[in-house]
Amino acid sequence: MSTEIEKHSREVGDRTFKARATNLGIDLFLGLFGLLMILPLVLLVANAFKTPQEMLSWPPTVIPAQPTLANIEAVLADTPLLRWIFNSFSFALLSAIAILITSTIAGYILAKFPSRAMSVLFAIILATAIVPFEVYMIPLYFQAQSMGLLNSVWGLLLGYLVMSFGIFLIRQNVIHSIPDELLEAARIDGAGEIWIFIRIVVPLLRGALGALFVLAFFQAWTAFAWPLIVATTKDSYTIEVGLALFQTGFTVDLGRLSAASAIVLVPSVALFVFLRRNFVQGVASTGLKE
Amino acid sequence: MLKRRRLLFSLLAILPVIAIFAFVRVYPISEILRLSLHKWDILSKKKPFIGLRNFQELLGDRLFHEALFNTSIIAFGVLLITIPLSLVIAALIFHRTRSRFAAFYETAVFIPHVVSLVPAAMAWKWIFDARLGPLNAFLSIFGVKPMSWLFDPVLSIICVIVLCSWQALGFAVLIYLVGFKSLPVSVYEAAKLDGASGRQSFWHLSVPMLKPITLYVSVVTLVSAFNVYAQVYVLASDAQGAPGRQVRVLVLDMLENSFRNYRVGYAASEAVVLLAIVLLLTFVQFSLLRDKRAPR
Q1: CATH code for the structural domain at B63-293
Q2: Which residue from A134, A130, A99 is spatially nearest to A223, judged by alpha carbons?
Q3: CB interface of A with B, residues 145-164, below 8 Å
């Protein structure tokens, strides 16, 4: 009898030991995998501070032995990098604000003022959401051209004023988190529709709006094809376009390229880590479309 | 009275949004369909309707075939790498949710998805570089001869696939994690009581129950890979500033026809083909989903 119990407890002990070992193995694997995923970016940033000799050394060093700022100084002298960053930043910020405003209004009205016309409208919005931007950017380019908006942040903005998914996201959030009774109570108290929207609806959507803002900002920040065709003068490039064209140049060396990339990467990765919760929530909700 | 005021408010509020939406989405989409049926060159004044002749020309266009072929290879290559890998990674991260490193795993896998495309592509361009890149240096340890990754037509497509998969992985893992969190715990407990191992419950419970998520992630991954452009622009451009000579993809061919050859109508027909591919993929997703819901 006692041996039975001993045997049993040994089995349980074995199992927890085995489970711990498995977990340790998984942690090791995931940790290594995670490091491998960010290694290209880490090495790129490291290269920005290396001398030309050290850049060729094998194995590549993560922390430069003789850190130098020469690359960064050279790239800032060669290119209007700060201007490009400013262009990208204002484009992304304005786009995020525009998308926030259009999505909040449309999402709220579509959720709380149902009618047949609104359903048709919503169906159209969902249908256009499937169409990739690359499909219709050529006609949009000619629209920007005829309005004289090429080579300006307003031309860039034209493509990123609305976001079908944003309208969808806000509509779902209004349906789930704002009860009709609340709006009715406010109306009975004599509140106007605009007051209700600004004072009741918008504050209740704070979480979703945060997620949408981050999503929209990064979407514009990383846009490539549209800025490439709309912005064709050196002063109007976004950082993505500026870097892409800069790297095709003849005289450009690896150090300067890495320096330019690092200047862009470090703040955007920092911003992402800072806003991670919002971002993950935003992207995760895209998976709940069905 | 009150009702009418409410109706008026809703119409006035949504009207500007509809106007913007129509101007920057509905109109250009309808324009691309119209242009694809016209001989619409920037230089010539006459822009006659020519029916399906643009599409007929596409059938015999060698460059377009090359672009369509490369893009399809890239899209399905990315799919084949991303889906199994992200499913496994997500399962492992989910298994270790309570680990204090879980946030690091999630962030590390997701960062490549959010960083700017061009700097990230430049990092990989350096890695693949034939003379300076660490990849050849690493492979030489195992006696592999250095290869010019970005100048060989086959190898450069593999490089693009690696870069795109590296970026797509984080998104897929994130969506799978949402999926794992929504699975019923009781089923797993029952399986455990019946003596199923972790691996068994992964194969026989998680994988089938996550099928709708897999479909969704597959379609999103495929659609975004069919629109690949920036990655190719950076990776496969040479020092002469001739981007994309090595790997021609659909968006590149389209932009070249429109802005270098000034053949906007012809480029529009390519955009319509891209749209058709996307619609087909979405349709396949929905019909497979419906199959699953139907009684067996």
Answers
A1: 1.10.3720.10
A2: A134
A3: 158-159, 161-162, 164
- The stretches of chain B forming alpha helices (DSSP H) are 2-21, 27-35, 53-59, 62-95, 102-114, 117-128, 134-140, 153-182, 185-193, 198-201, 207-209, 211-226, 230-235, 250-259, 264-293
pLDDT at B295: 46
Contacts of A132 (CB under 8 A, 6+ apart): B223, B224, B226, B227, B274, B275, B278
> At which residue do the structure tokens 């990064």 appear?
A218
Q: B263 in helix, strand or coil?
A: strand
* Enclosing H/E stretch for A65: none
DSSP state of A119: H
Peptide bond connecting A59 to the previous residue in cis, omega within 30 degrees of 0: yes
Phi-psi region of A133 (alpha: psi -120 to 50; beta: other; left: phi over 0): alpha
Spans of all domains in chain A: 2-68, 72-286
Q: 């490193």: which residue's tokens?
A: B101
Give Cα A56 distance to the centre of its chain.
Answer: 33
Residue A69, pLDDT > 70, answer yes
Exposure string over A144-158, b if 16+ CB within 10 A, otherwise e: beeeebbbbbebbbb
Contact B255 A40 (CB under 8 A): no
DSSP structure class, residue A198 = I
Per-residue pLDDT at B204 exceeds 80: yes
Question: What CA–CA distance (Å, rounded) separates A240 from A222?
Answer: 7
Residue A20 has pLDDT above 90, yes or no: no
State the complex-level ipTM.
Answer: 0.88
Structure-token pair, residue B42? 């920037």
- Identify the burial level of A30 via C-beta atoms within 10 angstroms of its C-beta, where 0-12 means exposed, 13-18 middle and 19 or more buried: buried
The predicted-structure confidence for B70-82, as pLDDT tens digits, reads as follows 999 999 999 999 9
Q: Which amino acid is at A10?
A: R
Backbone CA torsion sign across A107, A108, A114, A117: negative
pTM > 0.80: yes
pLDDT cut 70: percent of chain A above it? 91
* Candidate from A27, A40, A193 with C-beta closest to B127: A40
pLDDT digits (tens, 9 = 90+) for A166-187: 999 999 889 988 999 999 999 9
Give the angle B21-B23-B27 at the CA atoms, nearest 5°: 105
In total, the C-beta contacts within 8 angstroms joining chain A to chain B are 268
Considering only the beta carbons, identify the residue of A34, A106, A240 that sits closest to B17.
A106
Q: Which residues pair with B49 in a beta bridge?
A: B38
Q: Shortest CA distance to B81 belongs to which of B181, B161, B180, B191?
A: B161
CA distances from A87 to A15, A218, A225, A227, A237 (A): 58, 14, 16, 11, 7
Q: Tell me the two tokens of residue A160.
A: 């990123």
For residue B134, which residues of chain A lie inside 8 Å, CB to CB? 43, 58-60
Distance from CA of B284 to the nearest CA of A (A): 13
Nearest Cα residue in chain A from B93: A30
- The residues, any chain, with a CB within 8 Å of residue A180's CB and separated by 6 or more, are A112
- Its CATH architecture, for the domain A72-286, is Orthogonal Bundle (1.10)
